[in-house]
Hints:
Layout: H1 3-8, E1 10-17, H2 23-33, H3 55-69, E2 71-76, E3 79-84, H4 93-101, E4 105-111, H5 118-130, E5 134-139, H6 148-159, E6 162-165, E7 167-170, E8 178-181, E9 186-189, E10 201-202, H7 209-215, H8 217-233, H9 239-243, E11 247-252, H10 261-271, E12 278-279, E13 284-285, E14 293-301, E15 310-318, E16 321-322, E17 327-329, E18 334-336, E19 342-345, E20 348-351, E21 354-355, E22 360-365, E23 374-376, E24 393-399, H11 405-418, E25 422-426, E26 432-436, H12 440-453, E27 457-461, E28 466-472, H13 475-484, E29 489-491, E30 497-501, H14 504-513, E31 517-520
Parallel strand pairs: 1-3, 1-4, 4-5, 5-11, 6-11
Antiparallel strand pairs: 2-3, 7-8, 8-9, 9-10, 12-13, 14-15, 14-23, 15-22, 16-21, 17-18, 17-23, 19-20, 24-26, 24-27, 25-26, 25-29, 28-30, 28-31, 29-30
Helix pairs in contact: 3-12, 4-5, 7-8, 11-12
The protein binds guanosine-5'-diphosphate.
Guanosine-5'-diphosphate binds at residues 17, 19-25, 45, 47, 88, 139-140, 142-143, 254-257.
Amino acid sequence: MGFKEEIERRRTFGIISHPDAGKTTLTEKLLLFGGAIHVAGAVKSNKIKKTATSDFMEIERQRGISVATSVMGFEYNGIKINILDTPGHQDFAEDTFRTLTACDSVIIVIDAAKGVETQTRKLMQVCRMRKTPVIVFINKLDRPANDPFDILDDVEKELQIRVNPLSWPIGSGDTFKGIYNLHRQNLCLYSPSIQNIPEGIEITDTRSDELDHHIGERAAGKLREDLELIQGVYPSLDRQEYLDAHVAPVFFGSALNNFGIRELLDCFIEIAPAPLARETEERPVRPEEEKFTGFVFKIHANMDPNHRDRIAFVKICSGIFKRNTNYLHVRNGKMLKFSTPTAFMASKKSVIDEAYPGDIIGLHDTGTFKIGDTLTEGEKLHFKGIPSFSPELFKYIENADPMKSKQLAKGIDQLMDEGVAQLFVSQFNNRKIIGTVGALQFEVIEYRLLHEYAAACRWEPINLYKACWIEAQDQAELEDFKKHKAQYMAKDKEGRDVFLADSQYMLHMAQENYKKLIFHFTSEF
Ligand code: GDP
């Protein structure tokens, strides 16, 4: 197969949902369907459950699972599919944001009885920001569900995207009869099954008696009415509109019962984008370029404290990555080669010789990488679209063991490279401030500093509302601002100026008084 065909046949995507909507179940059914696994129950949930064990122990358990499920690759109908796993817990939303930067498209799972929930809404904001094409899967139709038209309205309103149903449910819960595939014009009758995948029945003309024969007169009548309405309201899908992230195709089904998955997957491989061109600070990079480029979007530390090695996950953006070949680590200017790059097929890992655009590879890392790093054949490129977001929670981090200050500094450094949280250094008192998305991360940091770096830390409160990166349209005004707000100025890990606002009011006043400064809530603008 030629290079171009290899790129064309790749689909790299993430599944996102609010916890419990069915992301893990859907992932597993897709793998089952693709023949990558053979029994249900093989994919472990990466969810953090509230159990008797303490939260960070649960996180450690979860971290163990998430190495295996970080990337799940499989082949289906000649298409190479890579599913990137995303943590469901909101405290790890930043991990999910970064993983989304490596996805070419996204499937959103929504519980048919609950509709769009908070976490889904937040993750959709990131997709919107990056113009990622999304497909929506409405799950759990085997249970009593909301009216499908209401669900579509809810999705459209809450996710701020036009929708286009490509399959349609016939009843729900006890009266769930099946799904009409609008895309293929066939009927799939519902029969609950954990293992089997039902075949569809061809019914191109829904006016025929055959429909009544299969689902009964009443349901057939209702379906005809629904279809008429759908035709009136939703025009047929324009693929370009989906690719431009203006329209989201919608499927209905029951992941648990393997129902509606075929419709979803068949359409997915047909319409979802192959790897796309990506922006760098210097120029756009097209996947079919001959020379290899890629970037690190995730770093996973070893679970064993005696081996502080890590795996850096690299998304290949162009060219062919080859084993044992020298590549430029752009940030530190060093040439590196990798003897054991790994690929991820379902839950198995294997050393590979080559990888293509769209693929994710795992590189053995002894601490040279951080999130966002670029590898190339020599050109100095910096991939865009891997921003830091303003954290929600802030604390001073202090050394609790004066004998171990070096270990602490190193530990903090490496954990920040991994993207566990963000570090800001106050320019006023030089103290280190850690910013996180969720409270759990403070526990994780403390625990990991102790267990992996033998360093003890202590937290002290600081009252902050937001960290803002400053864009100056007028250098003099920036200097003036920094002078007046010296107490609130910090540097991030990249040495960029950050304004730490202690209240919404203070931020508002700053915006009012300094019109030539723009305050950003993400590090990239
Ligand atoms: P996640 O948190 O989004 O990964 O959700 P899971 O896949 O772990 O599913 C949460 C719960 O919903 C589990 O108990 C699943 O068995 C259940 N579930 C998932 N899909 C369906 C479905 O189609 N129908 C029903 N009745 N339950 C489902």
